[in-house]
């Protein structure tokens, strides 16, 4: 599925092909929550990096978060994700991690194309542990079926294939 995403002010945008466009996984970790705009969670989908086309790249900025800010500065490590956002309006667009170089991770909130709507029972919530999730976010209890204290044992691709939502690329 071809997706078009953009920032709020319109100076940056992107196009990408996604085989996994259903926005089902909500991440409550502090990095996603704070970098994405302060809401209770963020929703990533997955795109094929080689199909990513950027527009207004001169306005794009990047940010790489510190994994654990509670450790001394000299022991801090950067998160693998490089987050891309508009330097003018601050809208977050997508993330990229060299560890999974084949993929990029558009934020569902940046996508202008209509996305498939997940069934409520298919939504997964992750990083619900007390260290990650903020106390005011309304979340169900951890059940390890759809609500996880850390990362689930499934990837975006695996979930889409299991639920017959994976779009084969021609």
UniProtKB/TrEMBL annotation:
Listed InterPro entries: CENP-V/GFA (IPR006913), Mss4-like_sf (IPR011057)
Family membership noted in the UniProt record: Belongs to the Gfa family.
One GO MF term attached to the UniProt entry: metal ion binding
Native species: Umbelopsis ramanniana AG
Pfam families: GFA
Name of this chain's protein: CENP-V/GFA domain-containing protein
PANTHER family: DUF636 DOMAIN PROTEIN (AFU_ORTHOLOGUE AFUA_1G09754) (PTHR33337:SF44), GFA DOMAIN-CONTAINING PROTEIN (PTHR33337)
Keyword Metal-binding: yes
Key words of the record: Lyase, Metal-binding, Zinc
Limits of the CENP-V/GFA domain: 3-137
